Amino acid sequence: MKEMARIAMILRIMPADQDVDLNDLVQRIKKDLPSEFELKDVKIKPFAFGMSVIEAMFTLPEEERASARLEEYLKGFEEIQEINVLMTTRL
Fold it and tell me: CA of 56: how far to CAs of 1, 2, 3, 4, 6, in Å?
């Protein structure tokens, strides 16, 4: 059986406030990340007004609703206020 194609998505993950420990949040995201997703790269970057954001590259199956499932998983963290897709590409 042919392996399903995968896509890479770079997401900007905005914390609910500037007091969120972003390194801890990244570790918690990794810990329970569903197996269909892989967290390939993480950068914590200054954003605005003293706040930093997480820019994370995930790979996921190229199938209907896969990106929606990833976003739903991430929105389950109360420390995450907003998720923006910066880039999507087929691998």
Answer: 30, 28, 24, 22, 16
